[in-house]
Every structure is written in C-alpha cells, then in structure tokens.
C-alpha cells in the first residue's frame, strides 16, 4: 500500500552567508558555510496516522515540516504525498505554526474563512454566507461555537490556537502539519488542547505530523514517535506507542505502559541532546551565521560537519 507521505533519502543543505569578522580586525569577514540540516532521511507516514516527531534543537524538525509543506525543496531525495512529488504548497496540506498568525482586524469567523476565499477544487467560489457557515462548522469542531464574532484580542492563547487549527481544517486538507503548536501555552491549556486535537483527529481521519520538544506530548498524541538524531538530522528510530486508549477519565500519563514508552523515547533523545550540546550545535544566529558549522572552502571540515 502506498504511504500517504513518503520521504525518500531526503537531504537538505543551506548555504549560510558569511558573518562579520572579529571586532577590531580589518576586513576579514568569515567564509560562507554549508549547513546540513537533514541527511539521507527516509520516513513513511500511513494514511490517517498521527505521527509525532522529536529531536534535539537544530536537528532539522522544522526543516522537515517545511519540506512536507512545499515551502522549500530538498537538496537531494524526494518528498512524496499520495505518491506524487511535492513541488510547492498545496491545499491537500495545511500547516499550524507555534504562532497563531491571526489577522487582528478579522473576527474568528473571518480568520477561519481566509482559505475559503479562492476557488475550490470544483472551480466554484463560495459565497460569503457559505464561507461563514463552514467557518462556524469548524469553529464548533474545535470547541468555539458562539465565538464567531470575537476578535483575536478578545480570545485567550488557547482559543487563538483553536482558531488557527479551525482555519487549517476549514478547506479540508488531507494532511495536517503542526510545528510545536502548543509550546507557548500553559500546562493545563496544553493538555486540554492535546485532548481536543485527538478528538478532532478521530472525527476527521486526517493524517497528522506533529513536531514537539515534549516527550510526554509526543507519546500521548502519537501512534508512533519518530526520533531524529543531532544535526545533521537522521531518523534514529521509530517507537510504536502501545498505551491504553486516551478516551476516558483515567490518567494515562501515570499508566505503567505510558511511563515505559516515555522512558524509551527519553533514552533515545537524551543521547542525541548530549551529542548536540557537546558539538555546540545551535540554530542560525540573527546575523545569518551558524557558529558550529565549518567553512565551505575546506572540504575535509565540511565532511566532518555532515557526519
């Protein structure tokens, strides 16, 4: 059976511009560097699966999501959805970011309607009333029935993220890509939205790829957890999550099976976090430099950076 999403031997490199030389020296700009974010990564996601993805900072998690969304292209390898190469953004995929990115001058309903304002797959453009009805439908799905006319400043952080999820669902994509969408929320709101997301997933049957730094969150939400290595990101292991159904009042996070699965993911991730810290891996700095990468003009150094 063809996978819904397939990454086949995908690598992604960035050329990072040179930064300024040490203060007080004349000229002497640093050389440009090659940053290898992902290296020969292969991963299949089944239709209707909820896959969570964890890895140390700088392991290429967001880069991987950008590739799936069609916001960037791989340096080598292929990214396929339904067996077709991803060549750019498409309405078969929706992205939910950590930041809500809501238009402050538009109501919740109007924010959700943004993706409905163009022509649909059948070439027909929805009327204003039809768009409002569909927005109300998806706001109700995320638990915001009755909040259609509220502006973002009238909503809590958790409610804003619900609007962002409703907006992504409204034009009915097959795949939902989520980049740490609950990271900025308090613990109680985060757990509440985790349960809401599982409910929405069951109701819609979407294929979900969910990036998180939280091991508990990864195990609680995912049917499988994909663990990435320190940069350059490679698929270290996929952990099948075998815990009781999350439906009900039982505290699944204290269940022995949950604790066991969490420890397994923690062990895999802990080693990679230590490797990343020892290597000094950091994200690209605001001046465009990547301090832990090596100059492109030194091939031997570049080979070590991609190892």
UniProtKB/TrEMBL annotation:
This is ABC transporter ATP-binding protein. It holds the Pfam family ABC_tran. CDD domains: ABC_NrtD_SsuB_transporters. Residues 5-255 form the ABC transporter domain. Gene3D superfamilies: P-loop containing nucleotide triphosphate hydrolases. Coiled coil: none annotated. It comes from Arthrobacter terricola. Signal peptide: none annotated. One of its GO terms (molecular function) is ATP binding. Residues 281-307 are annotated as: Disordered. Keywords: ATP-binding, Nucleotide-binding, Transport.
């Amino acid at each position: 059976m063809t996978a819904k999403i397939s990454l086949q031997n995908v690598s992604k490199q960035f050329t990072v511009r040179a930064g300024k030389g040490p203060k007080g020296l004349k000229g002497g700009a640093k050389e440009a560097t090659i940053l290898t974010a992902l290296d020969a990564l292969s991963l299949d996601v089944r239709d209707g699966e909820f896959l969570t993805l964890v890895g140390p900072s700088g392991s290429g998690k967001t880069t991987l999501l950008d590739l799936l969304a069609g916001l960037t292209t791989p340096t080598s390898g292929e990214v396929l959805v339904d067996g077709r190469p991803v060549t750019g953004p498409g309405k078969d995929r929706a992205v939910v970011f950590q930041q809500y990115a809501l238009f402050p001058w538009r109501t919740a309903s109007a924010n959700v309607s943004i993706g409905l304002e163009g022509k649909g797959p059948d070439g027909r453009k929805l009327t204003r009333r039809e768009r409002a009805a569909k927005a109300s439908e998806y706001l109700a799905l995320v638990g915001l029935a009755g909040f259609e006319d509220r502006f973002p400043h009238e909503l809590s952080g958790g409610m804003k993220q619900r609007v962002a999820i409703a907006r992504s669902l409204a034009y009915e994509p097959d795949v939902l890509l989520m980049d740490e969408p609950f990271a900025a929320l308090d613990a109680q709101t985060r757990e509440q939205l985790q349960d809401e997301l599982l409910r929405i997933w069951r109701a819609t049957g979407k294929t979900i790829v969910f990036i998180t730094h939280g091991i508990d969150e990864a195990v609680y939400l995912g049917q499988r957890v994909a663990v990435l290595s320190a940069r350059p990101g490679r698929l270290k292991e996929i952990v099948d999550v075998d815990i009781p159904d999350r439906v009900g009042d039982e505290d699944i996070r204290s269940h022995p099976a949950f604790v066991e699965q969490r420890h397994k993911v923690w062990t895999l991730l802990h080693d990679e976090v230590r490797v990343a810290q020892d290597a000094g891996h950091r994200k690209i700095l605001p001046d465009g430099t990547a301090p832990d990468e090596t100059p492109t003009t030194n091939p031997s150094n570049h080979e070590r950076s991609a190892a």
